[in-house]
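lol so apparently i was supposed to do this last week
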Amino acid sequence: MSEVRIIAQLGAEVLRLRAHEVQDINAPEMQEVINDLFASLASANGVGLAAPQISASWRMMIIASRPSERYPYAPEMEPTLMINPSFESLSDVREKDWEGCLSIPGIRAKVPRFTQIKVNYINALGDAVIQDLVGFVARVFQHEYDHLDGLVYLDRVESNKDIISESEFLKLMAVD
Ligand SMILES: [Zn+2]
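anyway here it is w/ zinc ion bound
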């Protein structure tokens, strides 16, 4: 059983908390959060969602890359649950590109992110996973990871001029 939950919106306190480490992924409460996280991401048609965005302050997130107009070469991946994730950058190279967030509708902004990272997490089966991520998937990971630390992407924007409305963003994408 799962429930599509309302996505917490910017200003909600839960988005500004450091989420708790998950101790037992088999606990009924955790299983409920996991199921609702999958259902809520699918319903919102997003490429990622972190548990605090459904008002569950736990260190869990899903990333689900797929190609889009902006990222035509983004890999198509099954939604992947990451529990207690961590990462390190594999180089100092950071690139600025557009991001949006289900918790901050109506705007987009350019955000610098590491282009190559090594990530660690516990998967849905309880196994420890180590993976290298690059490009768009690395970007989505870093965006979702920030939510676990009470950060949103606007916190990483270098200039207010890098923030635009969704309608202007769509015009830009049409020109590309
Ligand atoms: Zn977000």
